[in-house]
Amino acid sequence: MVELIERTLGQILTDTASEQPDREALVYSDRGLRYTYSQFEEHCKTVAKGLMSFGIEKGEHLSIWASNIPEWVSTQFASAKVGAVLVTVNTNYRSAELRYLLEQSDTTTLLLMDEYKGTSYIDTLYEIVPELKTSVPGELYSEVLPHLRRVIYLGEERYPGMYNWTDLLEHATRVSNDALQRRMDTLQPDEVINMQYTSGTTGFPKGVMLTHRNIVNNGYNVANRMQLGVDDRLCIPVPFFHCFGCVMSTIACVTTGATMVPIQEFDPKVVLRTVEKEKCTALHGVPTMFIAEMNVEGFETYDLSTLRTGLWLDPIVR
After folding, report:
1. Which of 1, 114, 119, 135 is most buried per CB count within 10 Å?
2. Taking a C-beta distance cutoff of 8 angstroms, is the pair 152, 110 a contact?
3. Can you give the pTM of this predicted structure?
4. For residue 1, what pLDDT is reported?
């Protein structure tokens, strides 16, 4: 019989940071960003306090529309610390799909990057919610999306009607560590913390409500099957908006003290270079990713000798 972990996702990060403070938690090899677990815990607490300073309450729905950027990971664990429900948005969505998700999920706060593969997320949002351009940040009212109040741009640039990431970090000073801890103390493992949308192949996409217990134990048991431990470094080229990336990859690492090594946007050469440079011991991917990596010209010249395990997930399986 499998023994379930009865801890919230925010508590899991705190526990791992306490047990493995100097172990690397998050590494973006291409940009020189490296957080130890103690540093990542403190950063996520700062983001969590920033969310609280914006008035985000326990149970509110936050949608994130971005590729595998660092802010995605910190938002995932910060939202868990404040008890907000993280709604993952497919990076390939267009305006009609985004509008449907934001309306159907009762999203109050949207976090987004600027663009992805030539599609401007900023222009797409202004198309759906033109009122945003003349709104005070945090005070949006839209007839189309009546629940949406705040938009946070995941960068330093300024856009009308939006907070930016710097605002979030600076506002964190308005909330004490004690206030954050009091919020965390109200959270329970059986409360919903994540909402992921089905592909919609048999109808409109539907939001699947997942609790702390769901995703923590899913990630932990995947890690166990892979025999992940504190000495492992997992290269993550799969998208965070899917359960593969944000549960079986990031949470698998944090529940076991392994290191997350994400790839912002899949490129087979970047994956191979990262595995070699960071001496990754594990690699995730879907079949087409592994095939593309093996077909890279000069594949045999990459030193992949540190790899010992991985996970191959058929994207048809949900």
Report:
1. 135
2. yes
3. 0.95
4. 61
